[in-house]
């Protein structure tokens, strides 16, 4: 059985491939945020305090479009609603952790740390709480610290990067790499399909309202499909409900 120290190192090692897209993604954010008029302290405040790339890009884009503050805030929250689902998914595995440990897990919870951790926990269900926390900690260190450093690089020297070097490839590749292996149930597929279709159909709405509608609609669809699936399984098993 792995010790917590070994689990921590394992989390770091398994996170390394994501740096191929995390680093250019963060550099790109630093460039875009400074071009939008944010100073270095504000850019770093985004990456250190918010620590959520998709919502950071959403907020900066809306700020650039002079969207009302309430729309910026609501759009950022809508994009990050998935973190609530991530937390609910991790809860059974980290239920015995202390409040202090849950607090730093919540802070470091990003798409990649969640995807790696939940798959690791499911493959190794007999891990202890310290081992699970250590693995998550390894992913967080390997992913979050480079994100912050690369944001600083983008904000300070990003303007020197030639236009021919396209950094915007990082965002779609990152999400495809994370999401594709996790679409394993009808609920997952339904949520993904509805969110994508609505985001495309409503792309013309101002101030990112299409995303604000598509994200919760996809989540609601996934929850509905999951509920109906569970009811059907219960009926088939002869359980009244």
Explained architecture:
- The protein folds into two domains: 4-180, no CATH class; 183-241.
- By secondary structure, it is an all-alpha fold.
- 76% of the residues lie in helices and 0% in strands.
- The protein is flat.
- Helix 2 packs parallel to helix 4 (53-64), helix 5 (69-79) runs parallel beside helix 12 and helix 11 runs antiparallel to helix 12.
What are the main properties of this structure?
transmembrane, mainly alpha, transport, 0% strand, 241 residues, 2 domains, flat
The proportion of strand residues reads under 5%
C-alpha Rg (nearest Å): 19 Å
The assigned structural class equals mainly alpha
The tally of domains stands at: 2
Distance between the termini: 41 Å
What's the total count of β strands?
A: 0
Strand-and-helix sequence, N→C? Answer: HHHHHHHHHHHH
| Shape type | flat
Main location: membrane
Membrane topology: Multi-pass membrane protein
Keywords: Cell membrane, Membrane, Transmembrane, Transmembrane helix, Transport
InterPro entries: Brnchd-chn_aa_trnsp_permease
Provide a brief overview of the structure.
This protein is mainly α and 241 residues long.
Topology of helices and strands:
Elements (H helix, E strand, L loop, with lengths): L3 H12 L3 H17 L4 H11 L2 H12 L4 H11 L2 H13 L4 H10 L2 H13 L5 H29 L12 H10 L6 H16 L7 H28 L5
Helix pairs in contact: 1-9, 2-4, 2-9, 2-10, 3-9, 4-5, 5-12, 6-8, 8-9, 11-12
């Amino acid at each position: 059985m792995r010790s917590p120290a070994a689990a921590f190192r394992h989390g770091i090692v398994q996170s390394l491939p994501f740096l191929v897209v995390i680093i250019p993604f963060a550099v790109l954010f630093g460039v875009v945020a400074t071009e939008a008029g944010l100073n270095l302290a504000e850019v770093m405040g985004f990456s250190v305090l918010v620590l959520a790339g998709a919502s950071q890009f959403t907020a900066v884009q809306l700020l650039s479009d002079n969207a009302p503050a309430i729309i910026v805030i609501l759009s950022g929250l809508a994009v990050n609603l998935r973190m609530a689902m991530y937390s609910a998914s991790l809860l059974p595995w980290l239920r015995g952790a202390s409040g202090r440990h849950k607090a730093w897990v919540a802070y470091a919870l990003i798409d990649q740390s969640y995807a790696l951790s939940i798959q690791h926990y499911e493959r190794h269900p007999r891990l202890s709480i310290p081992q699970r926390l250590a693995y998550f900690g390894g992913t967080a260190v390997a992913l979050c610290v480079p994100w912050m450093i690369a944001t600083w690089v983008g904000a300070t020297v990003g303007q020197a990067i030639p236009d021919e070097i396209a950094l915007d490839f990082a965002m779609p590749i990152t999400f495809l790499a994370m999401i594709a292996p996790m679409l394993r149930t009808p609920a997952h597929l339904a949520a993904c399909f509805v969110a994508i279709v609505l985001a495309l159909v409503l792309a013309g709405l101002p101030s990112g309202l299409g995303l604000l509608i598509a994200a919760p609609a996809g989540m609601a669809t996934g929850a509905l499909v999951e509920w109906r699936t569970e009811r059907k399984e219960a009926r088939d098993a002869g359980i009244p409900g």
